[in-house]
Write a structure and sequence with these properties.
The complex is a heterodimer.
Chain A: E1 2-6, H1 10-19, H2 21-25, E2 29-33, H3 36-46, E3 50-54, H4 62-71, E4 80-84, H5 89-97, E5 102-105, H6 110-121
Parallel strand pairs in A: 1-2, 1-3, 3-4, 4-5
Helix pairs in contact in A: 3-4
Chain B: E1 2-7, E2 13-23, E3 26-36, H1 38-80, H2 89-126, E4 134-137, H3 139-149, E5 160-164, E6 171-174, H4 175-191, E7 198-205, E8 208-215, H5 249-259, E9 265-268, E10 274-281, E11 310-313, H6 317-329, E12 334-337, H7 340-349, E13 354-357, H8 366-375, E14 384-388, H9 393-398, E15 403-406, H10 411-423
Parallel strand pairs in B: 5-7, 11-12, 11-13, 13-14, 14-15
Antiparallel strand pairs in B: 1-2, 2-3, 4-6, 7-8, 8-10, 9-10
Helix pairs in contact in B: 1-2, 2-5, 3-4, 4-5, 7-8
The chains are: A alpha/beta, B alpha/beta.
Chain lengths: 125, 429
């Protein structure tokens, strides 16, 4: 099983990598992408079981990545967890409108992200 | 005194204040002041947008700080602590310090998060962009919830006593926000009370219900009473007392209570405890545009269609899209117009079942669109629901609109009203 972490901030990628360490112990491979275009490429070639997706990123933003993934019949079933600093209702609605499966607001609790990711992957920790 | 907001041509806004001149017990005249406040409103909007951006930018580094601190704390506690020899005093002390330091980073990070959220809240309230959800509420039941939420603060020597008068009338209020006020007042009382008790009282007061939080704490100097509601002013010596909280708790409470048409009062003397109280009117004479309208202003509806489309008119593409989504999700057929001309053209070509109309739009305002449509026999029967940041129900009803909502509106409430209008059922507020 593969999980793709998408964020342009290196510290946040590292944080998510450490937060999801326990999934690695369960045999999950963690993949990284640093912008939206790279994310689209990796999703197409790796077919991850879950994508953790930041919203504000250069080149292609997270909303567009999600919209494209969910609009592609071959990729639409890949679950997407949006991670974003925006906390307003309108943004949450926008995230759901492009088909995101979950929506987590920054600052997030690493334990909470781990729990939700495990649940989405069907892994019992 | 009368304070109204007026729509001027070309999207400008004016504030009109009319107040009586009183001589002894006699009114000898009135003064009217009309001021163009377009610029102030624009500055307010820019300020709120700026704060929203800053709060977003602050959250990213904060995510790293808080997240890594929490992960490190867990690693130290679960993986490393066992390897520190129990008889090595220095190593044990260092371990204790690391754990305590991480605790401080986490709690200060959480305080910073609360501060960012509070700043965003208060700037939205001040700019009139907070989304309120008014409903009929039992304040006694809400007080019990506030007491339960703060019970952890009252487990020591200071008991919390809840006293709710039986048979209180319901009031019209936003339950989440009033709960926030109660919790805030109770936390403050717990924080500043070392001996005695804290009382939460809910009682009948005139035509309404009063909520009071009284403590036996250190009290507040009467000279400082006004400043406790100022932003970032924390009463007490900030050089010796470490400030707790964000300094925005009471200002936010005051804004919330003000949005319910009331004020928070404070009674206190130094060393004599403090009592914060506010009263809400029963039955809800809240300044809220949906239900608080006198019956005579609701026009009898002529349209009684249950099919047809809803025409949404708004110049802001995001809001247009949001309304489109909200109404489509709730089963309506929706068409969109980006300005008044487009709306009039579409409405004349095929009269919609209901029109949801913004007021402040370039070239031709929503009020003018409504006037044109209500004067045209082909469209006169189409119910119009105004959805605007401009609070001028008076003018709306004068030109014949059927419902008046203030932005931001609750999606469900809006959809219910559109449904009523479609069915031709005039609700009697």
């Amino acid at each position: 099983m593969k999980v793709l972490i998408v964020d342009d901030e290196p510290h946040i990628r590292l944080l998510l990598e450490q937060a999801l360490e326990e999934l690695e112990d369960e045999g999950v491979e963690l993949l990284m992408a640093t912008n939206g275009q790279e994310a689209l490429d990796r999703i197409a070639e790796e077919r991850p079981s879950l994508v953790l997706l930041d919203v504000m990123m250069p080149l292609v933003n997270g909303m567009d990545v999600c919209r494209r993934v969910k609009g592609d019949p071959e990729l639409a079933s890949i679950p997407v967890m949006m991670l974003t600093a925006k906390g307003q209702d309108l943004d949450r609605q926008a995230g759901m409108d492009v088909g995101a499966d979950r929506y987590v607001t920054k600052p997030f609790d690493p334990d909470d992200v781990l729990e939700q990711a495990a649940e989405m992957l069907g892994i019992e920790l | 005194m009368v304070d109204v907001q007026l729509e001027l041509p070309k999207g400008r806004v004016a504030q009109g204040i009319v107040s009586p001149i009183q001589e002894d017990d006699r009114v000898s005249g009135t003064v009217a002041l009309v001021r163009d406040v377009t610029l102030e409103r624009e500055v307010d909007r820019m300020k709120t947008d700026f704060i929203a951006t800053v709060s977003h930018e602050l959250r990213t580094p904060l995510t790293s700080v808080l997240g890594f601190a929490k992960l490190t704390r867990a690693k130290v506690d679960q993986k490393l602590a066992v390897y520190v020899p129990e008889d090595d005093r220095k190593a044990q002390r260092a371990l204790g310090q690391i754990q305590k330091n991480l605790e401080i980073i986490v709690s200060e990070g959480e305080r910073l998060t609360a501060l960012i959220n509070d700043v965003l809240d208060i700037s939205k309230m001040e700019a009139g962009r907070m989304e309120w959800r008014f409903e009929m509420l039992d304040l006694g039941a809400l007080a019990e919830r506030a007491a339960a939420a703060t019970s952890a603060l009252f487990q020591g020597d200071i008991p919390l006593r809840v006293d709710v008068e039986p048979g209180l009338p319901d009031v019209r209020a936003d339950s989440d926000r009033i709960l926030q006020v109660m919790i805030n007042l109770l936390s403050n009382a717990a924080k500043f009370t070392q001996r005695g008790s804290v009382d939460l009282r809910v009682r009948r007061s005139g035509a309404g219900v009063e909520v009071a939080v009284a403590d036996t704490g250190r009290g507040i100097d009467p000279d400082l009473h006004a400043s406790v509601f100022d932003k970032f002013k924390q009463v007490g010596d900030t050089l010796t007392d470490k400030p707790q909280g964000t300094g925005l708790g009471l200002p936010i409470c005051a804004q919330i209570v003000a949005a319910h048409g009331s004020t928070i009062t404070l009674q206190s003397e130094l060393g004599q405890g403090a009592c914060f109280a506010f009263a809400l009117t029963a039955g809800g004479e809240v300044d809220e545009p949906v239900d608080g309208l006198p019956e005579t202003r609701v026009k009898p509806l002529r349209a009684a269609r249950t099919d047809g489309y809803v025409l949404v008119v708004d110049d802001d593409p995001n809001l247009r899209e949001l309304l489109h989504q909200q109404l489509t999700d709730r089963g309506f057929q929706v068409r969109l117009a980006a300005n008044g001309y487009e709306a009039i053209g579409m409405a004349r070509a095929e009269p919609p079942a209901v029109i949801v109309l913004d007021v402040m739009m370039p070239v031709i305002s929503g009020f003018d669109v409504a006037t044109v449509l209500k004067a045209d026999p082909t469209t006169a029967a189409v119910p119009i629901l105004i959805l605007s940041i401009v609070r001028d129900e008076e003018r709306g009803y004068r030109i014949g609109v059927d419902r008046y909502f203030t932005k931001p509106a609750d999606a469900d409430q809006l959809a219910d009203t559109v449904r009523d209008l479609l069915a031709g059922e005039a609700e009697s507020p």
